Amino acid sequence: MTQQDLLDDYRNDLLGVFGDPALVLTEGKGCLVTDADGRTYLDLLGGIAVNALGHGHPAWTEAISRQAGRLGHVSNFFTTPEQLRLARKLLDIAGAPDGGKVFFTNSGTEANEAALKLVRSHGNSTDPRKSRLLALKHGFHGRSTGALAVTSKEDYRAPFEPLPGGVEFIDPTVDALEHAMGEDVAGLILEPIQGEAGVHPLPEGFLEAARRLTKDNGALLVVDEVQTGMGRTGQWLASQGTLSGGLEPDVVTLAKSLGGGFPIGAMLAMTPDAVDVLGPGKHGTTFGGNPLAMAAGLATIQAIEDEDLLENARTMGRRLRDGLGAINGVVDVRGSGLLIGFDLEKPNSAEGALGPKAVSAARERGFIINATGPSTLRLAPPLIIEGTHVDAFLEALPTILEAAHGA
């Protein structure tokens, strides 16, 4: 069957909640993927920041295969050595104080759902008035109803109103946070870099103010590192570069790069205020902590350490950002490590949205990227990306933009 035949099947048989897919991908190796017609592409999106080790990494593949042959699923009536090892590893990576604990999920959305329940339960247990949740404008925390309730994008929310209430969206400024914070606030959820919004880091000093104000008012601070965590920004957690001096968040949520492509998420209860909130019967999952996911997570972390991929993310990220900044038509290059967003110069009114056109033009030339807005592009390639890959994209981008303007 041709790729077009398969795309027709997709339209017939699958819910097109993401629109029609552009490609049917059949194979991947390293940073390259191949479609059903045999064309090869440089993957600069990494499954939306998921494929930390690229495609078909030998150690990752071997770890999952070995685990599949030993033990595939046990439910949460039991645990496994792999689950215990990964939990300890994540607590160490996050710098959790003694007593920190992990709850494993299957996705970032589920990790945030668990975090929201934890926050609300903590608020209810300390003061019946403590029910307000604060979230940031332009933040994205998932598409299930709870996570969507703290996601600000109106297009995502409107079809499903009314969503769970008690949420207030504020500008990501210290002044706005100080104005909104009070003793009736149960918690604040935020991303250190707002990825879905176009890779916008929070203003300098905001995280420290968030920690101080939540602590002063008995509220919990949830840092959503679903997209930014596990090496994406060149450090294990994006917030580690800013939250220092013992100002750790109460809760950290992880997913995406954690499994290197295997579905997994995790909620880390870091502080004593958060650790004991979700006791027996208050929350659960059937598949969370699955042994295959645990093996994938351990293998991904081990490869990041063995291959010095945090440093590679920093080095290749700088190379990409520097190169992008020198290209005509590219403005406001943002991000950290290998989570990069940039805007295209505003097209004239007749050209319409340039970002989606650039995505199509890039794909025609063998590069996978994505647009997060009419003129905003996002790159989140595998952490194993090499200089030759970066240079190939930078060399092709002027032609891609020229084609986008002419489309």
List keywords for this structure.
407 residues; alpha/beta; 7-stranded mixed beta sheet; 4-stranded mixed beta sheet; 17 strands; 38% helix
Q: What is shown here, in short?
A:
The chain is α/β, with parallel strands linked by helices. It has helices at residues 3-13, 46-49, 58-70, 81-94, 108-126, 145-149, 154-157, 174-180, 206-216, 272-275, 291-306, 309-325, 354-364, 387-406; strands spanning 25-29, 32-35, 40-43, 101-105, 132-136, 167-170, 185-190, 193-194, 200-201, 220-224, 251-254, 265-269, 330-336, 339-344, 367-368, 370-373, 376-379. The strands form 4 sheets. Strands 4-12-11-10-7-5-6 form a 7-stranded mixed β-sheet, sandwiched between helices.
Kindly describe this structure:
The structure is a single chain. It contains 14 helices and 17 strands. A hairpin with a 2-residue loop joins strand 13 (330-336) and strand 14. The chain is globular, with a radius of gyration of 21 Å. It is 38% helix and 18% strand. It has helices at residues 3-13, 46-49, 58-70, 81-94, 108-126, 145-149, 154-157, 174-180, 206-216, 272-275, 291-306, 309-325, 354-364, 387-406, and strands at residues 25-29, 32-35, 40-43, 101-105, 132-136, 167-170, 185-190, 193-194, 200-201, 220-224, 251-254, 265-269, 330-336, 339-344, 367-368, 370-373, 376-379. The model has no long low-confidence stretch (mean pLDDT 95). The strands form 4 sheets. Strands 4-12-11-10-7-5-6 form a 7-stranded mixed sheet, sandwiched between helices. It is of the alpha/beta class and 407 residues long.
